[in-house]
């Protein structure tokens, strides 16, 4: 009886290995002997292991302090709940930007485990090189799934084989982040060690878009060690020198295999802006920065400006805090903080040249590529965000900005309801690896220490990113704390309005410091001049300590608690 209870309840580990591509028996399961005796079915099974990756959310910025979503004024929306309600473990998935992927990710892990358990003895017609390459894909995928779990839940149980229907769950427990990261590195290292071949290398070939590669494995390695020694997860058990060696090696190998930061611009778009507008599915003929993923979005419709017919909502409206994060073009921070809790009194860096009466002049070029501000232009149309303007601020209409700003990043000036030429969200790009190396290197070796294996320092890595954007190098001689502040700000600006900020605030354990209070800018026209007034939104309810990690949904929690006798829930939930 216990066997059947486990089979029914623990879908996370014991779902039948079924897929539409595979022939099923009458009871809905697949005969593994049959699958791995047939070449097409074997390839179909490894393909099915990819079904749990998940997508990217254009409006992920609305769940961090980067943006206040225009739809927050509509009662019952996920943004209304995220800002104004206290969530619980039962409803969290309905209002979080990517739901609650615990079960989905473990299903993906289970599929990888089944494949790895069977591929070694498979009798299907394949070369040994193919057998090794397909195994490398499965190991990289398993590492990817575990990395996504760590980012969201912290330590999770390590399941490295198919549990089937007779596994005794009573002895299961959650591994520490350090232990999970160690396994992630093992999977990635074993995958990378496989010789380059058609089915697994650093490149994509025709028909392989979306496949795991050695480049993905390297990027996962760098991210994993960064999390292992992060303020939220560092329990002192993961060797920091090892973390530095891994991060440096990952970046070095990617650079040695032809990955580089995008540096092409056009008459209309800067290199930073044009990168996001370019389709990455080009077999790396032009885009040599993207490592994985490329989902086209419709900014014009879902984060659009109201002067464009067919827009549904202003969507992710950048906050004043994000605007303040952009340095001046001379490399000096414009705003260094706030002297009040409501963020209405900015601390201005007098040496920067920032002028409160002309707040949008002379800023980091990424500001102009990412944000529509008052009197900026979309093609030949002015974006007038002042009160009463054609794109004026509103607290009652979701098609108008709630903050005084609109999202420009990823949007093409040529897009409209007849043609979408907007850009592509990337899941992993080389910039991630530069940033992750910089974070680890600064913590372990210091900001300016040259790191063996990659021959650069943390500051060098940031300066490479800044150079692509058209920004000067960071000043030399910053203290560790000063460099950390500049690094974190650089990360915010480079990944503005993407999902990175959501996870970074949690990894750094500073969620309450930044995510609770956001502001906007109300602009009024006085003759030919404009007057600027900051205003505060109500404090958000999702900045408490418990939101550092996702809750385990109550269904899965009750199953595991009953079978193990332990409370698996994350703190505060």
Described by the principal axes of the CA atoms, the overall outline is globular
* Estimated helix fraction: 25-40%
Distance between the termini: 32 Å
Strand numbers in spatial order across the main sheet: 1-4
Gyration radius, rounded: 24 Å
Record field, number of beta strands: 14
Q: Looking at the chains present, what oligomeric state does this protein adopt? A: single chain
Mean pLDDT: 94
Low-confidence stretches: 1-28
Strand content: 5-15%
Structural class: mainly alpha
Q: So how many helices?
A: 21
In short:
The protein is globular and about 80 Å long.
How would you sum up this structure, described in words?
The protein has 21 helices and 14 strands. The longest helix is centred in the first third of the chain and has 26 residues. It is globular. The N terminus is likely disordered. It has 573 residues and is mainly α. A hairpin with a 7-residue loop joins strand 5 and strand 6. Among the domains are: 175 residues, Serine Threonine Protein Phosphatase 5, Tetratricopeptide repeat, CATH 1.25.40.890; 176 residues, no CATH class. The strands form seven sheets. Strands 1-4 form a two-stranded antiparallel sheet.
Task: Give the secondary structure arrangement, pairings included.
Blueprint: H1 2-9, H2 11-14, H3 32-35, H4 39-48, E1 67-69, H5 78-84, H6 92-95, H7 102-119, H8 128-153, H9 177-192, H10 214-228, H11 240-256, H12 271-277, E2 290-292, E3 295-296, H13 299-302, E4 316-318, H14 320-325, E5 335-338, E6 346-348, H15 365-370, E7 371-372, E8 376-378, E9 381-383, E10 406-407, E11 424-425, E12 428-429, H16 430-444, H17 458-469, H18 480-494, H19 500-507, H20 511-514, E13 519-526, E14 529-536, H21 554-564
Antiparallel strand pairs: 1-4, 2-12, 3-11, 5-6, 7-10, 8-9, 13-14
């Amino acid at each position: 009886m216990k066997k059947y209870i486990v089979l029914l309840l623990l879908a996370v580990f014991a779902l039948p290995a079924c897929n539409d591509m595979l022939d099923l028996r009458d009871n809905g399961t697949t005969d593994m002997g049959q699958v791995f005796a047939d070449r097409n079915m074997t390839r179909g099974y490894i393909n099915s292991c990819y079904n749990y990756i998940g997508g990217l959310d254009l409006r992920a910025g609305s769940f961090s302090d980067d943006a206040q979503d225009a739809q927050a004024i509509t009662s019952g929306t996920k943004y209304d709940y995220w800002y104004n309600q206290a969530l619980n473990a039962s409803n969290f998935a309905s209002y979080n930007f990517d739901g609650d992927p615990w079960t989905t990710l473990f299903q993906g892990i289970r599929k990888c485990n089944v494949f790895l358990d069977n591929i070694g003895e498979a009798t299907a017609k394949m070369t040994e090189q193919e057998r090794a390459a397909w195994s490398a894909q499965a190991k990289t995928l398993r590492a990817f799934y575990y990395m996504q779990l760590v980012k969201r839940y912290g330590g999770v149980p390590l399941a490295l084989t198919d549990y089937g229907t007779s596994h005794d769950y009573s002895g299961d427990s959650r591994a520490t982040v350090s232990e999970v990261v160690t396994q992630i590195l093992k999977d990635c290292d074993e995958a990378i060690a496989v010789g380059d071949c058609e089915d697994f290398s650093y490149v994509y070939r025709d028909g392989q878009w979306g496949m795991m590669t050695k480049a993905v494995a390297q990027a996962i390695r760098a991210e994993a060690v960064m999390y292992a020694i992060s303020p939220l997860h560092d329990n002192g058990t993961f060797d920091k020198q090892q973390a530095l060696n891994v991060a440096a090696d990952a970046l070095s190998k990617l650079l040695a295999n032809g990955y580089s930061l995008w540096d092409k611009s056009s008459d209309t778009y800067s290199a930073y802006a044009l990168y996001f507008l370019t389709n990455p599915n080009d077999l790396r003929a032009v885009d040599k920065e993207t490592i994985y993923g490329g989902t086209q979005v419709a900014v014009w419709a879902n984060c659009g400006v109201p002067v464009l017919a067919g827009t549904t909502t202003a969507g992710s409206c950048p906050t004043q805090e994000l605007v303040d994060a952009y340095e001046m073009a001379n490399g000096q921070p414009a705003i260094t903080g706030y002297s009040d809790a409501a963020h209405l009194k900015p601390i201005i860096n007098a040496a920067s040249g920032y002028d409160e009466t002309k707040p949008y002049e002379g800023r980091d070029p990424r500001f102009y590529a990412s944000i529509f501000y008052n009197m900026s232009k979309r093609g030949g149309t002015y974006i007038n965000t002042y009160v009463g303007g054609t794109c004026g601020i509103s607290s009652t209409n979701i098609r108008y900005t709630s903050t005084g700003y609109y999202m420009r990043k990823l949007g093409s000036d040529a897009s409209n309801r007849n043609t979408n030429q907007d850009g592509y969200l990337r899941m992993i790009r080389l910039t991630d690896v530069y940033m992750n190396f910089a974070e680890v290197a600064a913590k372990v070796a210091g900001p300016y220490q040259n790191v063996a294996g990659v021959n650069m320092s943390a500051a060098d890595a940031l300066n490479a990113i800044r150079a692509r954007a058209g920004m000067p190098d960071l000043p030399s001689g910053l203290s560790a704390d000063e460099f950390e502040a500049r690094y974190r700000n650089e990360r915010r600006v480079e990944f503005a309005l993407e999902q990175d900020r959501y996870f970074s605030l949690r990894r750094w354990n500073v969620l309450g410091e930044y995510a609770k209070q956001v502001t906007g800018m109300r602009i009024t026209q006085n003759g030919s001049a404009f007057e600027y007034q900051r205003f505060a939104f109500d404090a958000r309810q999702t900045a408490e300590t418990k939101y550092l990690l996702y809750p385990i949904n109550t269904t899965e929690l009750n199953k595991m608690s009953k079978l193990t006798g332990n409370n698996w829930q994350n703190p505060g939930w």
